Structure formats: structure tokens, C-alpha cells
Amino acid sequence: MDCIFCKIAKGEIKARTIIETQNSLAFLDAFPLALGHSLVIPKKHYEKIQDMSPDDNADLFGLVHRVVSMVDKITGSTLVAVHNGKASGQEIPHVHVHLVPRKSDDSAGPIHSMFSKRPKFSDEEFDGVLRKIKSN
Hints:
The chain has 136 residues and is of the alpha+beta class. It has helices spanning 4-9, 54-75, 123-135; strands at 17-20, 24-28, 38-42, 78-82, 97-101. The two termini are 31 Å apart.
């Protein structure tokens, strides 16, 4: 497998490691959106969160909880983001959580600013998707 995050987890590619556990690793993003932009990954390869084992999921998000407190001290506010699959914007098909220090003047805006064409849904559409999600 030619996954850059797997290579980082195995120590084949150098990373600026913040902290690691047996199953997860936190390190500085090599192409940061802000100073302190960090990534937290499972060491085992998973493409999507729902593919992860319960133990790896708990370990990953436990480490996210620890590291976000550390990163948050940089600016006092941190964006926590996961792109879960290619269509959502995931560029590397390995689960990774972005921790991006934010400032009010960083020009990034809220999540809703990512979508220039915000859809409008009817009550029937909301109710239909709610039923679909709950039935899964």
C-alpha cells in the first residue's frame, strides 16, 4: 500500500510527532493552514471512520481530545475537522482528524461558508432523510 499516513505511522517518513499512543499518532501537518495545524491518525489503515474497530476509534478520539487541548492554547480556538470519504474532501484515503488553530481574522469563516450554494429542503425531505438515517 502506498499510503503516506501509513508510512508516517511506521516511521518510514519523518513527521513532527506531538504525541502517540499504541494505536494512534498526532503530528504537525506538513502543509498547514495555520501555525500549529495538526493531524491525528489511527496507525492502522482505515479509509473511513465507520471502518475503524471500536478500540481504534476510542483510541483515536481519545488522542484527539488530548491534543485539541494542547493546540487550543495557541489561539484559544480550534477547528476540528474530518473529511470522511473522497466526496467530502478527503485527499488522503486514511482517516485523519485536522486540528486547526483559528483566529477571528484568519479569513476561513464557519463551516457554512464552504458551500456557496446552500440547498433548501422541505419538511418532507427533512423527515424522509431523518427516517433513512435512523433506519440504518
